[in-house]
Amino acid sequence: MLYSDNALNILVALTYKGVGRAWIAQNIRGGETIEAIVSLLQAKGCSEASALDFEQRRIEITDKVLALAPYADGVVAWGDDNFPPNRGMKPPSFGKQPVVLFDCIEVNPHLKRINTAIF
Questions:
Q1: Quick one: which of 69, 73, 76, 96 could link to 103 by a disulfide (CB 3.0–4.6 Å)?
Q2: Between these two residues, 36 and 83, which has the higher pLDDT value?
Q3: What's the mean pLDDT in 78-90?
Q4: Residue 9: which residues within 8 A CB-CB, separation 6 or more?
Q5: Ordered DSSP codes for the chain
Q6: Nearest to 21 by CA among 81, 104, 101
Q7: Alpha carbon distance 51, 41 (integer Å)
Q8: How confident is the model at residue 94 (pLDDT cuts 50, 70, 90)?
Q9: pLDDT tens across 10-61, in order?
Q10: pTM for this one?
């Protein structure tokens, strides 16, 4: 399964209370270090956010993502180079656009490829 550090960081950030798609879209550009993300989380008021806590949550999320390997080819997230751009004429609504996409294979005889927005 293919995934980026950025995708893992975003999935971990989403586990903190009060952090959602809008917060990710407004604060994450891609490629931030763990310390930078922890600093942003602490500025938001997530008192439990620390580098150690973030790393522990990251290990848990990595295990969960790897458990999806039989069902997904990879994960791409907001800020990754291959994350699909916003389509349409309207500017994106920060709370309604996906920030993490899993590239999935639907299990059927034809192995039809589909993309499913998860978060």
A1: 73
A2: 36
A3: 77
A4: 28, 32, 34, 37, 58, 77
A5: -B--HHHHHHHHHTTSTT--HHHHHHH--S---HHHHHHHHHHHT-TT--HHHHHHHHHHHHHHHHHTTTTEEEEEETTSTTSPPP-SSSPP-TTTS-SEEEEEE--STT--EEEEE--
A6: 101
A7: 11
A8: low
A9: 999 999 999 999 899 899 999 999 999 999 999 999 889 999 999 999 999 9
A10: 0.82
Pair 83, 101: CB distance under 8 Å: yes
Contact 84, 97 (CB under 8 A): no
Residue with token string 């790897």: 66
What is the identity of the amino acid at 66?
L
